[in-house]
Amino acid sequence: MLLEKSKLFTKEYKQTISEALEVLGKKNFALILQGVSFPSKNNENIGFGSYNSMGAKDVFDFCQGIFSAIQLGPCGKTKLSDSSPYTGTVFSKNPLFINLKELTTPKWDKILSQRTLDELIEQNPSIGTNKASYAYAMGAIEKAASEFYKNFKKNASKNLKKEFEKFKAENDFWLEKDALYEALSIEHKSDYWPQWNSELDRTLFKDQDKKKVEKRIKEITKKYNDVIEKYKLEQFIVQKQSDETLQYCKKLGLKLIADRQVAFSDRDNWAYQSMFLEGWCLGCPPDYFSKDGQDWGFSVVNPDKLFNKDGSLGPAGVLLKKLYTKMFKENPGGVRIDHTVGLIDPWVYKKGCLPKVEEGAGRLYSSPNHPELKKYSIATMDNINKTPIEGKYVTPDDEKWIDNLTQEQITLYGRMIEKIVIAAACEAGLNKDSIIAEDLGTLTYPVTKVMEKYNLQGMKLVQFVVPYEQNHPYRCKNIKENCWVMVGTHDNEPIRMWASKLVNTEKANPYIKNLIEDLCSEFGNKDEIWHKMYSDEKFFAFMKLVECFASKSQNVQIFFTDFFGINEVYNTPGTSGDPNWTLRLNDNFSEFYSQKLKSEEALNLPLVMIYAMKARGWEFYKDHQELLDKLENLVNER
User: Fold this and answer.
1) Residues 20, 386: Cα–Cα separation, whole Å
2) Among 44, 102, 201, 577, which has the minimal tally of Cβ within 10 Å of its Cβ?
3) In this structure, is residue 53 part of a structural domain?
4) Which of 455, 448, 342 is nearest to 405 (CA)?
5) Where are the beta strands (DSSP E) in 194-264?
6) For the segment 137-182, what is each residue's pLDDT rounded down to a tens digit?
7) Whole-angstrom Cα distance, residue 377 to residue 542?
8) Digit-coded pLDDT (tens) for 83-99
9) How far is CA 270 from CA 189, 195, 198, 311, in A?
10) Against a cut of 0.90, is the pTM above it?
């Protein structure tokens, strides 16, 4: 590898970076790299990345000794019509993450022929690019699955078949329904269940006559036995390979962090529709950026099904507990919860309407004056500090209309966190520190109090600091220890692209002023640094990254585009189509990283550490002079 030749990642390099991270108080340093974005070896690229691939192993080797964790994206099964991992299944994994190359080896009794794999690779339209071909990959995995299913039945060893039977038995509570959905999608020629022409099939698991349901399941199972078994086999393979990937990372000292999306897939909505609140959807209220709010269309879990009157878990609560327990057991590095607000104080709106107050929307647990939602409200009229004005109280400032709660009320707001999420983590042998609570956007008083009560680790995005607010929580000097800090997530522009739109304009000045005050207070060349940030987008972006490491936060995450210097967008919220969710790490990523370092586009870790340590002040600087000298040497050796 070029990096080894240039001695950038020598043992000394890794030890020095680790020492610097420790000195700066960083317990975790994670790379965000979602499944599709992993690179491929030449003999395995069917147009989609996988954390189970040989290319992924190269990434893990690359990260070992520098990063402590890899933050994956949601790994659920997606639809042909929607490649977003955030609308994938909550239990089933995506078959696109199967390592097909491995299936051609004796380890898997060669259930896939090398010839078939070679054909799929040769026809991949995205070969030689850093993009995925989602539709092609979906077709390729289906073709491969048809072959390896037949060969598995004929040629798989007794031990492998025994493992498969054990997997099916252990995961029956979700696997049976997910596989049945696959069969019914073929039966009705649509994988969108509301379009099925049979009322019985549409509502198979929703308050139906048990005898009719059992009879129908037997009919479908008999007619589509191979479809159902093939689905289960795909899930067995991807799970077995995922377990092996976890062990590989564990040997390297790397943790894998899962991502629990707030949405439920069509498959989940069908299987568990009795658990959801009919006629209501989850979204976001109107704010300064979206005057009509965000109408996500996601299902809302019915509060009456979450908990029983005595406080024990109801059927929906039991199901979610099983889900989180499964995720924590499979990902001992932890779980990132997408939209934690949705677990504590969700914004809901009527199906077919906009998520606006005047159209009936409101906070599910904070609307004591709402004609339909008040029965679920934890807050009472006594907790309201002002009478909401129609259409007004949902702005980021005005929505803080609740400003007092009793400890009992706070506990009720936090019961999903305590009795489901934290309880699941503990059952998996972990603790609440294994939870990354994505708390971006407007935080209501109940959310803030629950985060405080359970000391949850939230997220701070320095790219989204409001520079005119001295006490803004995303500014370096205000970031606390117990959180995860980053410049941006998968939904944001790379930091250099963000910086390029500000340099040489007055809009950059308030950001630069904050960076000078927080990072360069004891520097003698402030004017020079100011000018360089103002005119040089690379340096401006670099200083925003320094801000993460200089902050007091014990945990840092960085999206792969910002680390490797890829100036392309991974996902643009509110849009759909191939440009989203297709960006991948280059197959020759190590050489690519080395080249981007030379052009000052990739993250230069030793240099970032130097600036972050200097930002702590000259006394701190002098106390760690030996370490700084080592870092300087690494920079000069580049």
Assistant:
1) 49
2) 577
3) yes
4) 448
5) 255-260
6) 999 999 999 999 999 999 999 999 999 999 999 999 999 999 999 9
7) 46
8) 999 999 999 999 999 99
9) 16, 12, 13, 27
10) yes
